[in-house]
Amino acid sequence: MANSNVVDFVMSQTGLALFSLLLTVFCYFGAKRLYKYHRVWWLAPIVLAPIVITLLVFNLEIPLPTYFEYTHWLMAMLAPATIAFALPIYRERKLIRQYPLTIALGVLAGLFLGMISSWLLVKFVPLPVELSKSLLVRSVSTPFALEATSAFGGVPELTAMMVLITGVIGMLVCEPLFKFMRIRTSLGKGVALGASAHGAGAAKANEIGQQEGVIASLTMIFIGIAMVLGAPIFALIFI
Amino acid sequence: MSFLQATIRQCRHWALLLTQIGLFCLLSFACHWFATWTHSPIPGSVIGLAVLLFLLGFKLIPENAVQLGAAWLIGELLLFFIPPVISVIKYEALFEQYGTNILFTLVMGSVCVMFGTGFVVDRVFRFERQLNIKKQARRHAKAA
């Protein structure tokens, strides 16, 4: 009797919604723990967690509105997380004051190369419109990208996916690329990672060195802010 | 005894963390409300970032009052954007049809950005470092 009550609850909409939230949180922290002990790229939480969760949601046939009933609260945390970026800026004010030119030019280069590369590539590679528009903000950190993408006519969900894949690619190609290009300075590596692979790049930069990590986070934050503030103007140019 | 102390410390840590996250949420909510109310073209979250930076910069709040919460929010950023990624199930057909094209575009784009920014920054950094060294040398010369 009690057993069937439990089954009924789990199969009900609220139950499934609650299960989705727990599943998301559990998979994320599980992947994080796993990656701590086994540093292989496909175990990184940015790769493993979304794949496992997507497969489970898909195969268990959990309807998306049910999945979002509680997990949208996780998404709501993106705004407070954006505000939290003020702390690293404040903390590294000395570094910013020391290399204002390098950081400013790095941010500008990263911002515009990100948009121009997408804009040019979709001219040669056939892609549906909603995708090509969602691609423009792909190298910017998620909270900023989701905020800016509507100005370009992008779809938030597709944008989130593009941002995620971009992060993974950046993590994978950075080391051979740096070797090939002979980038050896910590600022060069940090800015390049932060500009091209946002949060995932910053995490990777942290593995390379502390200063690389700091500079990657700063670049990512500044590019994000610049993207959000400039999106209405950039949209006039690139759309 | 030490076990008790450890538990108390743990509880304190969690209470502090939760309070700070709560404060971040409050600030975020207030800024969001302000942005909607004034029809601001700048989104609430960026206004909030500026407000917090202002508060920290003018020492109106100490750094360690937000440190724990900020570290947690930034550290678990990935968790917050997993849900929108899951909803690409809706676009399954799109990914099946254009998968290779998408991947090609993303890889080429990423390589471009990394190549370009890395190149620019590497050069500018060497230049600015020399500038800083010269500036320092001049300061030392003056002091001597």
Automatic annotation (TrEMBL), chain A:
InterPro entries the record matches: CidB/LrgB (IPR007300)
Regions that span the bilayer: 6-28, 40-58, 70-90, 102-122, 158-178, 214-238
Subcellular locations according to the entry: Membrane
Species in which this protein is naturally found: Shewanella morhuae
Protein name: Inner membrane protein yohK
Any single Gene Ontology cellular-component annotation: membrane
Keyword Transmembrane helix applies: yes
KW Transmembrane (keyword) present: yes
Pfam families according to UniProt: LrgB
Highest taxon above the source species: Bacteria
PANTHER family: INNER MEMBRANE PROTEIN, PUTATIVE SEROTONIN TRANSPORTER
Membrane protein topology class: Multi-pass membrane protein
Sorted UniProt keywords: Membrane, Transmembrane, Transmembrane helix
Taxonomic classification: Bacteria, Pseudomonadati, Pseudomonadota, Gammaproteobacteria, Alteromonadales
